[in-house]
Amino acid sequence: MSNTLDGKVVLITGASSGIGEATALALSAEGARVAAGARRSERLEALAGKAPGEMLALDLDVTDQESVRAAVGRTVERFGGLDILVNNAGVMLPGPIAGADVSEWTRMVETNLLGSMYTVHAALPYLLERKGAVVQVSSTSGRIASAGNGVYAATKFGVTAFSEALRQEVTAQGVRVVVVEPGFVATELTGHITDPTMRDTARRLAASMRTLQPGDIADAVVYALTQPEHVAVNEILIRPTDQTQ
Predict the structure, then answer these.
(1) For the segment 51-66, what is each residue's pLDDT rounded down to a tens digit?
(2) Whole-prediction pTM value?
(3) Confidence band (pLDDT; 50, 70, 90) for 189?
(4) Is the CB of residue 213 less than 8 Å from the CB of residue 238?
(5) Separation between Cα atoms, residue 75 and residue 67, nearest integer Å
(6) Helix 214-225 to helix 18-29 angle, to the nearest 10 degrees?
(7) Is the CA virtual torsion 74, 72, 12, 32 positive or negative?
(8) What burial letters (b/e) apply to 177-210, b meaning 16+ CB within 10 Å?
């Protein structure tokens, strides 16, 4: 028998589009009370209007520790606690290492890796109190590095390493840690690529396959979170059938 998410309190980062938006709506449909955080707050208001259940829109920048602590605090103040954290905020700025704009490296490390760590750190006392769950949205790039994706892959490998250490620290206290590793998903992520060659490569890849949709990843998150309490789905790797790497 699956656990119900009815009444559970969820905080989702990067909820203004793509996987985060789809996951917020899917968990709301399962009865969860959702705090949806992102920098594009105007999109969150529209998202809250579409949600089937109660949803709190939060102006959240995961690279700013004070913003993270404030978002967790507002979530707990509004809903009385926190059961689930979905760390989804991320940015992908691929390009060759030689001649790179290293400010893009900093942005990826701060968002994908440190942002995830900051949010776990702020949320963990409340998750421990309720024997909750952490969902870390990583990537196939957290398993396989490729030319042009070195720094992005490094951040995602980092998420995997951090998540495994976290799991070992908190699983005996009833907190489950789930790493979700999507392959190619049709989201806005590739639209932020500044390197022309990598941008064209991403477009060609998208055109060559039946890409995953954000809802496919949201369904996987729901699956992991609705297992019985003694079952921990620690890792889910999801690729399009047509994706070879």
Answers:
(1) 999 999 999 999 999 9
(2) 0.93
(3) low
(4) no
(5) 12
(6) 50
(7) negative
(8) bbbbbbbbbebebbeebebeebbeebeebeeeee
Nearest to 141 by CA among 178, 99, 179: 179
Rounded to an integer, what distance in angstroms lies between the CA atom of residue 170 and that of residue 197? Answer: 42
Per the listing, tokens 């699983």 go with 171
Only one residue has tokens 């939060």, namely 58
User: Which are the catalytic amino acids?
Assistant: 152
Query: Residue 90 in contact with residue 14, Cβ under 8 Å?
Result: yes
Task: Please provide the DSSP assignment of 111-135 as one string.
Answer: IIIIHHHHHHHHHHHHHHHHT-EEE
87: which residues sit within 8 A by CB, 6+ positions away? 13, 115, 116, 119, 120, 134, 135, 136, 137, 159
Q: If you average pLDDT over residues 103-132, what whole number do you get?
A: 98
Q: How far apart are CA 214 and CA 212, in angstroms?
A: 7
* 3-state percent helix, strand, coil for the chain, nearest multiple of 5: 50, 15, 35
Q: Return the pLDDT at 186.
A: 81
